[in-house]
What we know:
The protein is of the alpha+beta class. The chain has helices at residues 17-26, 41-49, and strands at 3-8, 34-38, 54-58.
Amino acid sequence: MSKLKITLKRSLAGCNKKQLATLQAIGLSKIGQTVEKEDNAPTKGMVHLIEHLVEVEKA
């Protein structure tokens, strides 16, 4: 299965609680931090919720 490389690009200031919880579940807390996650439906749903804060590329 392929992976997604997710990088936090914008500040968490002004995010609502749901977005902050999603970022924490993905494992992102600092700008520039990158994680690799499986490319599946739950991950895509989380990325969709925070797509304005992150950069996503295929790994």
